[in-house]
């Protein structure tokens, strides 16, 4: 009994507790108010349903939240991820190009400038370079992260516009659609991408000492330097990583909508990503972090959005509802509330 | 004094934390116009008692009386309102605000709906005048030394027109002059009828300034006595609850070990402009080298060069006969040099990580990212050092910020011992630490040097401590090495004579 209780207490204090609770509440609400919320059907060997939809649509946010978690763990923040989504999408789309041509025989042919792997790789490399820029400003020039990344947040959209020459580039080349619309074993490819990123980062954090060093820097960067941790190097790396995550999200989004829209791709996503990380119980002051909690946090954000649409509430109200849910979660997470809760539990024990 | 009506009376205070009884049936009385020393080892319950009094914690049971009336203190703000203010060991002011702003923050005088800046400035100057402190109150607080900041913190408490002022280790970062100035201020406050609770580890200070002493040990009240009728040795034995064999034992270590040992590190003409003038230094295996000097004499600056925290702009460092470049702490760590910094909280501890993680961090750094220590190995190492140097913690997973000061220092030490360094640099390792732990650390240093052949550089403001454990002493003054003492030259008188500028 005792060990079960101990585990429960441990779980209650874990980072994943509040976001999971929020997710469960949302699911319960949806069970009553949205018909067939938990139904999953198989059509043409593909899974369909609200749950699959949430995972699929939430994929970009989940990936960005993973990168953002590491940045926030070093006591930083990356406001430029939304802009990097747009840049990566613009790079990939302009390389895939894809003009629709009609051959003399009347056949419709789509031409591309490069192949998909080259476009994908180019997008990732360009994003990494922008990540280096952020990392350089923060780690070497010691500019506060919120200011340093604000620069790219603003300028990045301009860069994306330059790449697309101010146009929305439509993509016609079908192989590229696999990323955002494809299915593998009946499951959307995007979900596999999330799983892969989560797995790689998870392994990197657990099996190497990188996670420990990041937590150490986030908790006390001066002391970390005194221990010999190369805090500059690690900060540099997390910003690159965050940019790459944003680029992957950008690829999924452009593939999904079959176009690169420099103005709107990834717009305000940095805020949703920060929200996901904070909902995941990760402190903005850095230190201990959990990427799984952030991913659950991202799912909460996405479920909220899907719920609003599915429940037929006008989309404009979405933001209000989001704000309200955030308020509740932040209250649940506050120390004062936890103290009160613990007091209640203790009182219960005595009775 | 003791007969006077107590301004504060705490009766049968109990407070428990999960697994620890921090206070058990503690009684405490404070009379108006007295300076009352609160003594005890780290973890004795001094801080908890103060936190109960200032409303940070709620007592599980017991009562507090203010001027004879029972009172429930709800929060630190409430405590301030009824006239109880605290000045903490680590100054908790806002370094980016001006001195005057710091003194008045939260209580700005208002005139015509606006903050009355003129009044703030004038009153700040008046109150600092009391301390004989002529500083520009418009300057940023961070511009001034810790000592000045401490005075500002006290001034802030005074402005609230406190009846009771609690000083938690106020002299830990002050030099003798500054301490004397502080004592003058305390005496003046006393004559004005203000009651002062004074927490410190410095015995001299306690005897100099207090009227009564209350001693706590393991959360229990041991005694409250008049200072003049309590011999020092009795006070110490009451605090640590055992005789002083540990300290005596140390006298048995020879002063001569290390004389003929191999040279480990040699510095030739090493200097860093504005930090420390050129100096030569030889560190031998198995010896303890003491660095003596006043605050700001260049002790910390000297070791910063040896640890790669600062780059030397001339001279060279030779380790094991080869010239090396130390451009970062990482380089130093790779040469098995370790440094426990002076300000433990900012530069030593990773507060939000566990005791285990704090201990294994340096070892992990030497192994790099990829060869991560397994969980089992980490636990084993952490447990080993917890047992070896007797770190008091409920378990390995406790966050290090929850430990007492002395145990935090031991964690930082354990972190470096885990890499088995050739050279261990300790910058004020016993600052603000209770006598028992202090003796533990001194003994450990001697054992490491004589037993393991480690070379130790030991910096301390307590000259007595330096003379007791060093085989060689380097004296610094005004950011320059001015003398090197060996053998019988190592005594307090000689060191002070040198610092004062005397020739040999």
UniProtKB/TrEMBL annotation, chain A:
The keyword Electron transport does not apply. GO terms for cellular component: plasma membrane. Keywords: Cell membrane, Membrane, Sugar transport, Transmembrane, Transmembrane helix, Transport. The chain crosses the membrane at residues 16-34, 54-72, 79-96, 116-136, 143-163, 183-205, 236-253, 265-284, 291-313, 319-337. Pfam families: BPD_transp_2 (PF02653). It comes from the Bacteria. The keyword Chaperone does not apply. GO terms for molecular function: transmembrane transporter activity. It is a multi-pass membrane protein. It is found in: Cell membrane. This is Simple sugar transport system permease protein. It comes from Halanaerobium salsuginis.
TrEMBL record, chain B:
It is found in: Cell membrane. Transmembrane segments: none annotated. CDD domains: ABC_Carb_Monos_I, ABC_Carb_Monos_II. PROSITE patterns: ABC_TRANSPORTER_1, ABC_TRANSPORTER_2. InterPro entries: AAA+_ATPase, ABC_carbohydrate_import_ATPase, ABC_transporter-like_ATP-bd, ABC_transporter-like_CS, P-loop_NTPase. Residues 8-243, 259-503 form the ABC transporter domain. One of its GO terms (molecular function) is ATP hydrolysis activity. One of its GO terms (cellular component) is plasma membrane. It is a peripheral membrane protein. Its main location: membrane. Keywords: ATP-binding, Cell membrane, Membrane, Nucleotide-binding, Repeat, Sugar transport, Translocase, Transport. It holds the Pfam family ABC_tran. PANTHER family: CARBOHYDRATE TRANSPORT ATP-BINDING PROTEIN MG119-RELATED (PTHR43790), GALACTOFURANOSE TRANSPORTER ATP-BINDING PROTEIN YTFR (PTHR43790:SF9). This is Simple sugar transport system ATP-binding protein. It comes from Halanaerobium salsuginis.
């Amino acid at each position: 009994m005792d060990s079960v209780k101990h585990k429960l207490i441990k779980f209650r204090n874990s980072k994943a507790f509040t976001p999971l609770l929020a997710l469960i509440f949302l699911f319960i609400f949806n069970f009553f108010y949205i018909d067939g919320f938990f139904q999953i059907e198989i059509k043409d060997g593909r899974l369909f349903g609200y749950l699959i939809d949430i995972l699929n649509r939430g994929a970009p946010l989940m990936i960005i939240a993973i990168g953002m978690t590491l940045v926030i763990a070093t006591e930083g923040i990356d406001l430029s991820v939304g802009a990097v989504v747009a840049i990566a999408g613009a790079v990939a789309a302009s390389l895939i190009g894809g003009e629709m041509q009609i051959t003399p025989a009347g056949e419709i042919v789509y031409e591309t400038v490069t192949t998909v792997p080259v476009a994908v790789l180019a997008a990732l490399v360009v994003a990494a370079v922008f990540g280096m820029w952020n990392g350089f400003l923060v780690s070497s020039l010691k500019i506060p992260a919120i200011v340093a990344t604000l620069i790219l947040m603003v300028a990045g959209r301009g860069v994306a516009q330059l790449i697309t020459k101010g146009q929305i580039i439509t993509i016609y080349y079908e192989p590229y659609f696999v990323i955002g619309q494809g299915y593998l074993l009946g499951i959307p490819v995007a979900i596999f991408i999330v799983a892969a990123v989560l797995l790689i980062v998870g392994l990197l954090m657990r099996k190497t000492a990188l996670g420990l060093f990041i937590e150490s820097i986030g908790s006390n960067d001066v002391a970390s330097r005194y221990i010999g941790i190369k805090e500059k190097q690690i900060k540099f790396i997390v910003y690159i990583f965050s940019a790459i995550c944003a680029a992957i999200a950008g690829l999924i989004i452009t593939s999904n909508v079959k176009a690169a829209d420099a103005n709107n791709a990834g717009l305000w996503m940095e805020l949703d990503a920060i929200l996901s990380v904070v909902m995941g119980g990760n402190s903005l002051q850095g230190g201990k972090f959990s990427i799984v909690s952030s991913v659950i946090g991202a799912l909460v954000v996405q479920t909220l959005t899907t719920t609003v649409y599915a429940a037929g509430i006008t989309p404009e109200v979405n933001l209000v509802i989001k704000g309200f849910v955030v308020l509740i979660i932040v209250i649940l997470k506050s120390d004062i509330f936890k103290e009160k809760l613990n007091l209640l539990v203790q009182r219960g024990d005595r009775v | 004094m003791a007969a006077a009506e107590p301004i504060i009376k705490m009766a049968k205070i109990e407070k428990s934390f999960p697994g620890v009884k921090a206070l058990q049936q503690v009684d405490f009385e404070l009379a108006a116009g007295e300076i009352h020393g609160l003594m005890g080892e780290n973890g004795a319950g001094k801080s908890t008692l103060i936190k109960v009094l200032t409303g940070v914690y709620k007592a599980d049971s017991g009562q507090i009386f203010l001027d004879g009336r029972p009172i429930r203190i709800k929060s630190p703000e409430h405590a301030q309102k009824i006239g109880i203010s605290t000045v903490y060991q680590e100054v908790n002011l806002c370094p980016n605000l001006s001195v005057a702003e710091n003194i008045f923050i939260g209580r700005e005088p208002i005139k015509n709906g606006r903050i009355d800046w003129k009044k703030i400035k004038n009153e700040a100057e008046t109150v600092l005048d009391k301390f004989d402190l002529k500083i520009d109150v418009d300057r940023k607080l961070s511009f001034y030394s810790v000592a000045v900041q401490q005075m500002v913190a006290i001034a802030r408490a005074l402005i609230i027109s406190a009846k009771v002022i609690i000083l938690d280790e106020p002299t830990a970062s002050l030099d003798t002059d500054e301490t004397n100035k502080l004592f003058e201020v305390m005496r003046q406050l006393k004559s004005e009828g203000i009651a002062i609770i004074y927490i410190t580890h410095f015995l001299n200070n306690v005897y100099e300034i207090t009227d009564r002493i209350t001693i706590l040990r393991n959360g229990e009240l041991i005694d409250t006595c008049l200072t003049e009728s309590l011999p020092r040795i009795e006070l110490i034995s009451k605090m640590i609850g055992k005789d002083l064999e540990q300290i005596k034992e140390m006298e048995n270590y020879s002063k001569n070990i290390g004389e003929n040992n191999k040279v480990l590190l040699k510095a030739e003409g090493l200097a860093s402009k504005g930090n420390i003038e050129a100096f030569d230094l030889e560190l031998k295996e198995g010896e303890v080298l003491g660095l003596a000097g006043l605050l700001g004499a260049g002790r910390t600056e000297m070791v910063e060069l040896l640890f790669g925290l600062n780059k030397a702009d001339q001279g060279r460092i030779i380790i094991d006969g080869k010239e090396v470049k130390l451009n970062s702490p990482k380089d130093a760590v790779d040469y098995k040099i370790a440094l426990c910094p002076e300000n433990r909280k900012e530069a030593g501890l990773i507060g939000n990580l566990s005791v285990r993680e704090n201990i294994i961090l340096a070892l992990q750094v030497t192994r790099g990212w990829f060869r991560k220590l397994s969980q089992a190995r980490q636990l084993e190492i952490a447990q080993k050092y917890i047992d070896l140097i007797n770190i008091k913690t409920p378990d390995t997973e406790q966050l290090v910020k929850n430990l007492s000061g002395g145990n935090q220092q031991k964690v930082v030490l354990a972190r470096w011992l885990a890499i088995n360094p050739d050279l261990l640099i300790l910058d004020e390792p016993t600052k603000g630490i209770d006598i028992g732990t202090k003796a533990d650390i001194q003994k450990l240093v001697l054992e490491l040097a004589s037993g393991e052949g480690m070379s130790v550089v030991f910096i301390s403001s307590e000259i007595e401590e330096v003379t007791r454990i060093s085989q060689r002493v380097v004296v610094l003054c005004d950011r320059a090495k001015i003398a090197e003492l060996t053998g019988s030259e190592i005594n307090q008188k000689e060191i002070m004579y040198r610092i004062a500028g005397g020739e040999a």
